Amino acid sequence: MSMDITFLGTGSAYPSPHRGASALVLRTEGECWLFDCGEGTQTQLMKSAIRASKITKVFISHLHGDHFFGLPGLLCTLSLSCSPHGDQEGPHIEVYGPQGLRNFLRVALQISRSDLLLTYAVHELEPSREQSPCTGHLDPALTTSSPQLHPQERPGRTVHLDPDSDCYSLVHDQRFVVQAFQLYHRVPSFGFAVQERERPGRLKVELLKELGVNPGPLYGRLKNGQSVTLDSGRLLRPEEVLEPAVRGRKRINRRWHQKRIIRRWHQKRIIRRWHQKRINRRWASEEDKQEVASEEDKQEVASEEDKQEVTIRRG
Ligand SMILES: [Zn+2]
User: Fold this and answer.
1) Torsions phi, psi of 201, nearest 5?
2) What is the pLDDT of residue 208?
3) Which of 88, 91, 153, 238: disulfide with 118, CB 3.0–4.6 Å?
4) Quick check: 192 and 179 in contact, CB under 8 A?
5) Could you tell me whether strands 92-98 and 235-236 are parallel, antiparallel, or unpaired per DSSP bridges?
6) pTM over 0.85
7) d(CA 99, ligand 1 centre) in Å
8) 3-198 — its CATH code?
9) Where are the domains of the chain?
10) With bands split at pLDDT 50, 70 and 90, how would you rate the model's confidence at 261?
11) Is 115 among the residues known to form the active site?
């Protein structure tokens, strides 16, 4: 199965005519998944060889504008390329991202009176308090959306952190498993790991010919893991004629996972610097000052724990 990644934008907060805001497409057979959708993503798509109409899932890492301001416009443009489909629903897009994304998208589409010829659902990831400084968490009033959905919106779910795997389970289909994990940033932020499922090994064609099995539907059934009964009455099991299974590829996650380890290692230092900066600017609250003091007390112990964790993971 083909699988490739296209970087549509790596310009972060400073896009330029030659470098778009954050966006990346994972393309597999039949569909494309978009990771982040900064402003201008739709024009970057037009410049690429990717067919925007193949986008079925969108994953937003965090709610800083350079990672999601392009989403309402992209949905509207995708809708323009849909043809009216009578009573039947058109294409459907699943959107995954932090809490607040559902409300943002709903309000943006409602205020702009955007009627879509496609449907969408937003699945929100619930962040934890220690995932960012307290100033990075949204006011609950902004994340609580009205019960009335946009006409083309379908109900989405709230995804909670699985304490056993320390991940958010997002997608489980026949080909892939997609999980999200927490990253440390000024606002709640998530990385995504796409794991391809194990694929059956190749058929041992020579052996099959020796057994009198010619290419045809039986090959497909054996490849799909089904046993078949030959004309001779013999039951042929797939494990007899299949090479060892092919391990699924794991794209995207490695660098992000390393990033998470590095971020964890520096997490306490980042918190301290963040609050110290505010104090230096003389607009810190008492809470900030106390947090810096308590972080300094803990620093010695914490840094030893972090070093041990990194040593274990490197091993
Ligand atoms: Zn950011």
Assistant:
1) -70, 175
2) 84
3) 91
4) yes
5) unpaired
6) no
7) 15
8) 3.60.15.10
9) 3-198, 205-241, 254-314
10) very low
11) no
